[in-house]
From TrEMBL:
Keywords: Membrane, Transmembrane, Transmembrane helix. Coiled coil: none annotated. The chain crosses the membrane at residues 70-93. This is Zinc ribbon domain-containing protein. InterPro entries: FxLYD_dom (IPR047676), TPR-like_helical_dom_sf (IPR011990).
Length: 414
């Protein structure tokens, strides 16, 4: 059987449609045949009468019972809808809170990278209060706390530097450096920059208080090397002052050596200063002057050496060939026919001589040889420039016009 309103199939004995509640009309579901049609009409009439009676006696109670059932059936739906709404609201709230926590965390990271540790700490505290168990926030908060602590310590160090308390500032600065070792997080970038700047300042202040009393180039060179690699205007200005002082000391030392003709030492002193002050014009000009004077001096010295060598050669020639000069010879014939000869000699050498032997010849008035001989000069040892003598006697000459001639002389140089 089918409902002619909603076309739903029902059992053959059904009276009402289970879907729309309308009475089923059997004539629309009859099969072919008169008997079946008559039986169906009879059942329809009976059912119709029963339904009419039932509707008349219980119309109102049925309507009330249907509304009550409807309300009762809606209660679970309402409860489910309410629970779903609550859950949805809670979910949306939690989602928004999570997003806010992430926003605070990201903002804190940006502030920390910019060196604004106080603001980063404040943002992370809000995130930590909202999500105490969120480990990434707790980890970031710990790192920011460390950076903030170091930043506050650096503020104290800066105050000590302003007060010229270098000792305590240096100690605290080394402590900060120790804590920074091994910390590679970008958040510590600003702290590292500050540490570098303060280290430079400490070094500059220490060197500034020491170098002015130094008078040696080596000591000043040690101070110079401390600030050589430092950056910044203060370090540059201090380095230039030390360079100038080294150049002045080097100039004075080099010039003093130059005046003493100690050109090698002068060049060394000037070069030492130019190592640290290569652009010092005054020192560079002195160096060039020393080099020129050294060359001139060496050239002159070489000339003097050559002259001395020439002179020495000449002297040696004299010493070897003409060390003894005859100043004069006196020869007389006495009453007994003896020919008495005396001579005075001069040591013309540049060195002492000794064992001088004179070889002589005596001639008669006709130039014939009367006799020859040798005689030793006295004294045996003669200093350079001293005079000495010799004498001998030739017997039985008998010629008043006899003469004596020095044939050869020998000596030894000391």
């Amino acid at each position: 059987m089918y409902c002619h309103h909603c076309v739903r199939e029902h059992d053959a004995d059904a009276v009402y449609c289970s879907r729309c509640g309308r009475l089923l009309e059997p004539e629309r579901n009859l099969q072919h045949g008169t008997e079946d049609k008559a039986a169906a009409l009879e059942e329809w009439d009976t059912a119709k009468d029963q339904a009419s009676t039932a509707l008349e006696t219980s119309q109102t109670p049925l309507k009330q019972t249907g509304r009550g059932n409807l309300l009762i059936g809606l209660i679970p739906v309402i409860v489910l809808v309410g629970i779903a709404a609550v859950l949805l609201s809670y979910y949306l709230y939690e989602t928004r809170l999570n997003n806010r926590v992430l926003d605070w965390q990201n903002a804190a990271r940006q502030e920390a990278l910019a060196g604004k540790y106080e603001e980063a700490f404040r943002q992370l505290n809000k995130a930590a209060d909202a999500r105490p168990d969120f480990k990434p926030v707790q980890a970031d908060l710990k790192v920011v706390e460390e950076a903030l602590s170091l930043d506050r310590t650096l503020t104290e160090i800066q105050q000590r530097l302003d007060d010229q308390d270098l000792g305590e500032a240096s100690i605290q600065l080394e402590q900060v450096k120790s804590k920074l070792r091994g910390r590679e997080e970008p958040i510590f970038g600003r702290v590292r920059d500050q540490v570098e700047e303060m280290s430079t300042k400490v070094t500059v202040l220490q060197v500034s208080s020491e170098y002015e009393s130094m008078t040696g180039i080596d000591d000043l060179a040690g101070e110079y090397n401390q600030v050589k690699g430092l950056s910044g205007d203060e370090a540059l200005a201090l380095r230039q002052k030390i360079e100038a002082k080294i150049a002045d000391i080097s100039y004075d030392e080099a010039d003093a050596m130059r005046k003493k003709k100690n050109f090698s030492a002068a060049i060394t002193a000037a070069q030492k200063g130019l190592i640290y002050a290569p652009d010092n014009d005054k020192l560079a000009k002195l160096y060039d002057r020393i080099v020129v004077e050294k060359k001139n001096f060496e050239d002159a010295e070489q000339q003097r050496i050559e002259q001395a060598m020439q002179k020495a050669a000449e002297e040696d020639l004299i010493n070897q060939t003409a060390a003894v000069k005859v100043k004069h010879i006196d020869a007389q014939l006495d009453l007994f026919g003896d020919f008495n000869v005396k001579g005075e000699l001069l040591n013309a050498a540049t060195r002492p001589i000794y064992s001088v032997v004179i070889e002589y010849t005596v001639h008669d008035s006709e130039g014939k040889v009367i006799t020859t001989g040798k005689v030793d000069a006295t004294p045996s040892y003669i200093e350079a420039g001293e005079t000495f003598s010799f004498s001998f006697v030739v017997h039985h000459v008998q010629d008043e016009n006899a003469t004596v001639a020095i044939d050869h002389m020998t000596w030894y140089l000391d």
